[in-house]
Amino acid sequence: MAEPAVVAERLTKMFGDFTAVNDVSFELPVGEVIGYLGPNGSGKTTTIRMLLGLLTPTSGSARVLGRDILHESTDIRQAVGYMSQKFALYDELTVTENLVFYAGIYKLRGALRAARVDAVLRLVGLEAHRNRRAAEVSAGWRQRLALAIALVHGPRLLLLDEPTSGVDPSARRVFWDLIGQLAQEGTTVFVSTHYMDEAEYCGRLGIMSEGRLLAMDTPTALKRDQLPGPAWDVVIEPLLPGLELLERTGGVFRVGLRGDHLHAITLDGAHTVESLLAALGPLGSAVQVEPAEPTLEDVFMALTRHQPAA
User: Given 69, 249, 256, 300, which is the most exposed site by the fewest CB atoms within 10 A?
Assistant: First the structure.
């Protein structure tokens, strides 16, 4: 069995009295897309920066591609592809010149450098823009250029820190298609995000909140194992009185608006279609209740609802 690309053991980072990352442990299997889901300030970026050796942990340890983050951080940064939230592009240079510059930082020279630049331009679909200045391409193309820079030296591990922030949904979808292709070719991709829909694209997902890693598993397993009971879709008019009534109903763990209907999670065994219809009876007969598929938002809200204070 292949050694994990990353093994983190009880990583903790404090800034004065503030704990940014609290006792986080996980492994990243080779050749998978692993998501790191959480709101801004939950500790995602701090975790990634510790893995790169850019921040020293207050306690704990980690190995990245077999290298220790405390003693081999320079080697880690040469071996890993990293795309930060605010990726640095040189606007006055062309797309190709940006890639050549960063390839030089990774100590690629001559024919090898030229071959790698051409290869990543093809991979991310930037060949037609190779001679345009970076300042002239759209946000979606700049994002692809930043990914190409992270890939130019052929890393086996990519660390992507909220790479799709600020780009439109179609560009995000194309970007995730590229991530999936890289994983199929054997690259391990660790990508942080605060978008629930993006989390569904991951083979494995870690959920962060207030510095803690609350769970890490496949999206399917998280939805199966981390909820207190089944999900329901409730069609009712008007919505808000139905929402307020369900919030007061025993056995209802959580209820919220979902477009033109309500979405509820109930405790295991607490309700059936008939019992929910009965609970909503005071609002009239035009009510529909159906079993629903749980979502990662349901999982996140369930995990964070009773999270202890840091």
Answer: 256
